[in-house]
Structures are given as structure tokens and as C-alpha cells.
Specification:
182 residues; 5-stranded mixed β-sheet; 6 helices; alpha/beta; 36% helix; single chain; 7 strands
Length: 182
């Protein structure tokens, strides 16, 4: 989130209008507020077992701010098909794997367990299929002997911070050409 916000200056064709979190303690809320960006929280724990009501609460907040694009970053909640349909073609996510490999959680460990020689991250459009929307960009890193899930995550993270703003810049300009880093 911070990398996206920091990129959205100067000639960048988008500006942040809201940072919305599902966790009241999320560090990004204070960072956004310090930069003068409005923040909101829709705490998922208040909606346990009712994803439809949770997504309705998210939508109500988003409607107040009217973003053109929603960028998910570290948002670890599965959204309902009805919610994702409202944002078709206007919602992006970053995922720590080279999709379509390793949808869901524990991607770094799964890449290591599979013996992959490369790993990375993907920015994709969000659809009702978990981590299954059209791929807009990927960044790759080499998997080396001795890598752990933690070291692999640390190698991927700087590329996430480069890739997501690069994809967003194109996307908000109407360009869905894929971006590939190393």
C-alpha cells in the first residue's frame, strides 16, 4: 500500500482517495493518515460467518469515496462473487506467486516444496475466482538452495513494491499490456 501511495504523485495518472482495512491495527492506516489520506476500517471479525454482510459494509464505504479503481494489498479476505462483480475491471490484487501457480496461502513454502527454480509475484485483476483474474504483470526471482519461505518472501517483496505501481500506472491509463520485471 505504501509503495502505491508513494508512486501516486507527480505525473502518475491516479491519486489515493482512501485506505480501507479489515484490521483496525493495520500499520498502513497510520501511514496513510500521516500522508493525509482518509482511512476507514471494516473489521471482518464483526461479521464472522456472514461474508455477504461484510462485503455490503465494504461496498457502503467504497461508495462514499467513489474510487475509480480498488487496489488490494495485504487484504487476506475472500470476497463474494456479487462483490467482485460490482468491481469487474476496476479491482486489482497482488499475489506472492507466479500465477497460475500457488493460488491462496503459503505460496513461498509451496514453491520450495515443489522444487521450483523461480518464484515471484503477480498483479492481476480480481474476479470471483480466487487469484484467478487476468494477469497484468509478473516479477520473477531465482530460487536458490538454502532459501526458506522467509528468505524467498524477502526476495520477492522489493519486486512487489516495483511491480504494483508499474501495473497500476498502465491500468488507470487504459493499458492492460502485461508488465514483466526481470
Amino acid at each position: 500500500m505504501v509503495s502505491l501511495v508513494e508512486a501516486m504523485t507527480g505525473d502518475f495518472p491516479a491519486r489515493p482517495c482512501l485506505v480501507l482495512s479489515n484490521r483496525p491495527e493495520a500499520a498502513g492506516l497510520a501511514k496513510a493518515a500521516a500522508q493525509g489520506i482518509p482511512t476507514e476500517v471494516v473489521d471482518h471479525t464483526e461479521y464472522e460467518g456472514d461474508r455477504v454482510a461484510y462485503d455490503a459494509a465494504l461496498q457502503a464505504v467504497l461508495e462514499r469515496y467513489a474510487p475509480d479503481v480498488v487496489c488490494l494489498a495485504g487484504f487476506m479476505r475472500i470476497l463474494t462473487p456479487a462483490f467482485t462483480a460490482l468491481w469487474t475491471g476496476r479491482m486489482l490484487n497482488i499475489h506472492p506467486s507466479l500465477l497460475p501457480k500457488y493460488k491462496g496461502l503459503h505460496t513461498h513454502a509451496r514453491a520450495l516444496d515443489a522444487g521450483d527454480t523461480e518464484h515471484g509475484c503477480t498483479v492481476h485483476e480480481v474476479t470471483s475466482e480466487l487469484d484467478g483474474g487476468p494477469i497484468l504483470g509478473q516479477a520473477k526471482v531465482a530460487v536458490e538452495s538454502g532459501d526458506t519461505p522467509e528468505t524467498l518472501a524477502a526476495k520477492v517483496l522489493p519486486y512487489e513494491h516495483q511491480l504494483y505501481p508499474a501495473v497500476l500506472r498502465r491500468f488507470v491509463s487504459g493499458d492492460k499490456t502485461q508488465v514483466f520485471l526481470p
